[in-house]
Amino acid sequence: MTEWWYNDRTGEVEEGPQSLGTDRVGPFASREEAARAPEILRERARKWAEEDAAED
Questions:
Q1: In angstroms, rounded to a whole number, what is the distance separating the alpha carbons of residues 5 and 49?
Q2: Summary mean pLDDT of the chain
Q3: What is the distance in angstroms between the CA of the first residue and the CA of the last residue of the chain?
Q4: What is the pLDDT of residue 52?
């Protein structure tokens, strides 16, 4: 199964881990999902912040 990564430094999608771990996010199941990584990460962060606020 191919894993896809998003390179946060270059903004490019990579097939398999090609760059330094500090520069990439993933893995994702598809190229399309990896391309949406910034959006996905923002949404996850928003949900986590809401959960943290609800716990306080």
A1: 24
A2: 95
A3: 41
A4: 86
The whole-angstrom separation of Cα 25 and Cα 46 is: 17
Per the omega criterion (within 30 degrees of 0), is the bond before 38 cis? no
> Residue 43 burial (CB < 10 Å; 0-12/13-18/19+)?
exposed
pTM: 0.82
Q: Which residue shows structure tokens 């771990």?
A: 21
How many residues belong to the chain? 56
Residue with tokens 């520069």: 23
Residue 51's identity, in one-letter code, is E
Strands 13-15 and 4-7: antiparallel
